[in-house]
Fold these 2 entries.
Entry 1:
Amino acid sequence: MSASVLFRLLDVQKAYDIRRATGPLAWGATGSLKALDGVRLMLDAGESMAIVGESGSGKTTLLRVLLGLTQPSDGRALFREKDIASLRGPDRDQFCREVAMIYQDARGSLNPRMRIFDLVAEPLDHHGLCTPATRHDRVAALLSRVGLPAEMMTRYVSALSGGQLRRVAIARALASEPSVLVADEAVSGLDVSTQAQILTLLRELQREMGLALLFITHDLGVAAYLCDRIAVMYLGRIVETGTTREVLKSPAHPYTRALLNASPRFFAPISDPLPGEVPSPIDLPPGCRFAGRCTRSQADCHATEPALTPTSPSRAFACFHPLPTAERSAVEPAGGQRSASH
Amino acid sequence: MKPMHLSDAPGKVSLPPFIEERDSQTLLAASPLLTVENLCLTRGESLILDHVSFSLRRGATLGLVGESGAGKSTIALALIGLLRPPEVGLGGSFALDGTGELADATDATWLGLRGRRVAMIFQDAAAALNPCFTIGRQIMTPLRRIMGLGRSAARERAIELLESVGLNDAPARLSAYPHQLSGGMQQRVMIAIALSSDPDLLLADEPTSALDVTIQAQIIRLILDETRRRRASCIFVLHDLALASQCCDEIVVLYGGQVVETGPSRVVLEAPMHPYTQALKGCVLELDTEALTPLPSGAPSFASKTPGCRFADRCPRALGKCAAVKPPLAETRGRKLACWNPL
Amino acid sequence: MADIRATSSPGRIGPSSLGALAWFARARFFLLLASSVLAAFVLSAVFAPWLTPYGPVEQDMSSFMQPPLSGTHVLGTDSFGRDLLTRTIYGARYALTIGFGAVLVGACGGLIVGMAAGLSGGLVEWALMRFIDALLALPSLVMAIAFISILGQGLDKVVLAVGVALIGPFSRTVRADVLQVKAQAFVEAAGLMGIGRLAIVRRHILPNVIFPLAVQATIRISYAVLVSSGLSFLGIGVAPPTPDWGLMIAEGRSFVSFAPWIAGVPGTALAILLIALSVVGDGVRERFDPKLGRQ
């Protein structure tokens, strides 16, 4: 199994020191902002995993750690069992080849002064994947794989629509023949019809090419459609993981259930929303970080932080009082727990 | 069966007497609050809105759904008089109960209506709130100008309003600046400002698109509760069909500036008859969606010369005459439909 | 999926290209006018020997200080009997050469310094920033004077002096652009692909910086012309009897009360050229500047 593990995060922590002003001229004690706290994650080859979380959950920081753009302040972030941030030379080249990223802002991730052909050919040239003679054909093949006509090669970024640019970004990501695709909200902000097209394309590609997929999203529907496994993040921690089907059908962690309740579903009554807002990640109080908003919290929840404990080989959650199996349904239980609005 | 909660909790806010009087009258009124008939909007050569018609009862919520560019925000802006000649050309008519024809209303008329009878909540609260002024000043300005309250009365009312929209520690918030609040709180402030003069019609232009999904649920619930309580009507501009099914009584589906299907949301969304509505529904991801059926690529053309249905070139059921003759909006099976070859 | 943007121009241009031209002419009348004027200056500067009736330094004491439209000299003559029309047209050569040349020098220097400042960090960046601050602290004219005093007089020295004086402003804008481009996603994406720093600078950062720089340069040409004319006016630019406008204005100073055309003709020509350059520069910026969001 270890040969096929691509990413492995072991108790990764990323903390920033924040100095806060206590007065107009005075700077108070430094606080610690833990963007990531004790994250444990594993991605196998060919596996598709969705990282779900709202703003402030730390998913962006997690992404940056995985890509080697940030170094964790504690813990280890490994790619093929090698520390990501200290990869050099041929190891780093291999990492760059195997890990391809698709950005949320497709237009921003493509150089506006380059033609589509040059954009898609750039990784081909850099990694030496084809001879100059075959470049044209390779680019044409990649473009047609993502559903774009070959004529698009000669055009510039400004001439293409948002949906088309997403496809170009995907084509470019595929050019280096990666083993894992990392996507950061790759379909948010698109019309549903474009979103549907891109998602269908991604699913096809992932299945055909056996790519591993790490998909960061806030949309549970996207996670369910695209990924076999899911990891739910809250305030820098993973609070639940498992197969998407299981987790979304019978969530164990109250936050996962709150996310499910809040996701719009056809004709479902608007359930009582989760009260309050995400607390500030600076100097969190002891105990479970979700305890302040949790309807099931009890005394021990405020005392110690629950760790992500596996209950089966494929399932884990971090909660002292998880939802009992009988009560676990995607809808709020009858009788309702009317927590007062904040 | 209405798919939403009615919050009947008595409000903490005590409404000024003249509003309560009007309240009892409105309960007896049978005529619709808003009627829009054949509204057309042109910008240069393009026909942005093509004969849009719908009506809205008092106390009901209506959803304008469609993709970007379909004209939903345009309709909202036109209904509050922010898109008028000479910037754009307006044809057709729309009127609020009790006012005259609004399509050609003057500046003075709109000044009297905006904030008092019609109010709007925008998508990006951070951009809609002035970053240079405190929250207190932004809430109190309409209270003093439109409601004519004195300074201390306005301050009290502002605190009441902020508390009613769920912001705790309201007196402190009055002296805060917009950037000091989170996105959800900014949106609540905007809702408070919109509701401050108790309008009959609230327009909410994608009020939650910029927010996290758990905050989205709070805000939608807040808007629904508040409009229910004040017996106001609300028009939501949404791109999320599932959300529309949850919070709107009626729904208007737009494509390329044309109304393709409209009616009670349950009727329309459970069994859509227009191919576009069906296609949109097929693109919505539910948790157990196995396969998505994407629409073929394309975008509607806004040329004023296209005579027929603007969806014809992407429609899987298009007939020869679809591109040539525009189907009229006709009543069928409990909804209004504009299609020559419905499902 | 087109976004409806509020524009004041009509929705679409009509099918005929003549109609398009007519619309363009109506909407951008001043731009068209200024471009034509600029083109006229450039062409007359290029074809000066064929357009001018007399030589630029040809003196004719019998017809000195003749007012304009008096017989043989269309724009009059100066105190040496030299034809003003000829001298003005030749003066355009000097003005435009110095203007474009100085901007070229300044833009190249600014590009190098600005990119170094934007791409480096730590102490190097700090030192470069202070260097740019020092360059910006002195007014361009003063700096140009300082350089002339070191380099001496002459056309090439003027170009160099004015050019170096322009390095400060250019490097400031280049650095700002570099910082902005560096933060874009496509630069990070290239880094993630494993592309080396130098290649990223060459392929991704430089092209995106040069374009706004070129736009800035067109705007500053008029300023360069003004500064060089100022130098010549002060007598430390090009040497007489070169038909440089600044020099001609200086020479006509003493005669302003009774022969105002001697300073007036080159002065008017300078003013018209500067206005035309400014309008064209603005028009280019409006059309091409990506920061204004219209492309």
Entry 2:
Amino acid sequence: MKRTPMYEKHVAAGGRMVDFGGWELPVQYEATGIKTEHLTVRSKAGLFDVSHMGEITVEGRGAQAWLSSLITNDITAMHDSQVQYNIMCTETGGVVDDLLVYRYSPDKYLLVVNAANVEKDWEWFTAHLPAEGVAIENLSAKTAEVALQGPNAEAILAKVADFDPSSLKFFHFRDPATVGGIPAIVSRTGYTGEDGFEIYVDWEKGGELWDLLMEAGKEFGLLPIGLGARDSLRFEAGLPLCGHEYTETIGPLEAGYGFFVKVDKAGGFIGQPVLKRQKEEGLKHRTVALRLEDKGVPRHGMDVANAEGRVVGHVTTGGYSPSLDANIASCYVETPAPAEGEHLWIVIRDKPKQGVVVKRPFYAKSYKS
Amino acid sequence: MAKIPQDLHYTKDHEWIKIVDGMGVMGISDYAQHAMGDVVYVELPDVGRKAKAGEDFIVVESVKGANDVFCPVSGTVAEVNEDLDGAPELLNQDPYSNWLVKMEVDNPSDVDKLLDAAAYAKLVEELEAEES
């Protein structure tokens, strides 16, 4: 199994190590557990080792046009030092992966992709690469990454960064920067619904970065956070996870992330004709947020039924929400989908459990700047 | 190190049981609650439900997932612990005073065939050694 440069730190801190797509990472830490870790990120700050994420650069005079042809959002509207959320679709409108695009210039981008999809994405890029004008490089094995998230993240980073983090706007990045003297790329981004930063450094510097941030964060209540809380935080905040909300058959519109899909953008993109038609003809499925009223915990893959007891879809993500102290689910269902305040039933071990459709996100995001 | 009271019998699946006034009182062990993590819901069986030894008849839902709990010895559910309904975290706080169900046990002598505290402690010790 692969280990990140922070592996020893996790073990020393009591991390319960699990196999996460071939990476040995902490699901939680002994002293805290998922619930405490989750609530600490919402109230103070948490540090996540996300070194398993993939980083790929795209460079060349053809970079912008080529990249635009692969992803759903409009990168021509970006300015330098901006970050944009994007979805990469298949010809049939399903999802290859979702990713962050960092623009250095119209001729240079950094892409941050899901750990589980690095190889698949790389093959996808390679298969679609033009003969000239675009060069791609996979920096994943050389790049360590941490996410510093929570209302105290800015104050912690201010102690160790060579710039004033309050000057860095949401979904923007700074490069070059240093954190504790270590050369770094710092973006005001995250996957928790809280304010925070993602910091990229050389692989060898990962352990040192981890230690200095934990030390700087002591007075602010910073805790190390495992994968368990990473998932519950993103889910509460209405952030999608590839393989759950998106799949090869569930596209971005049906998943409810149409905001990031510009079906009319110039030049087109892979999957655009299908998504455009979906939009024009109306969606056959939608993803709705459900809060359970009956007792029970919804889980990924469970059937979702309507009032007549007919199965109309399935749960894409489900679980206990520590912030709301409620059990919640994202449900992919046939249209017409029920409106807010109406009901759906999740079939938990053969018993239908009633839930009420609520607004997404379940938990209101609290981003700064 | 997980707590393992001397006066209980255990299964290799980490349930405990004790016969009190002819009634089997059962729950999950300290090792089990720790492995499950924060408990958020306990799905208890209906009173009157018959269950065979080894049958899954209770589900403990934690933040990490659903965990089946197996019936330690065959019998009929006589009472369920309603306290867990509003406060499932009691299982994390003390899984021994917070029992799950009381059962009319078919053969009280079946309990003696389960692991005693010493044998269970050895099992847990091996598991904990594997994990560290």
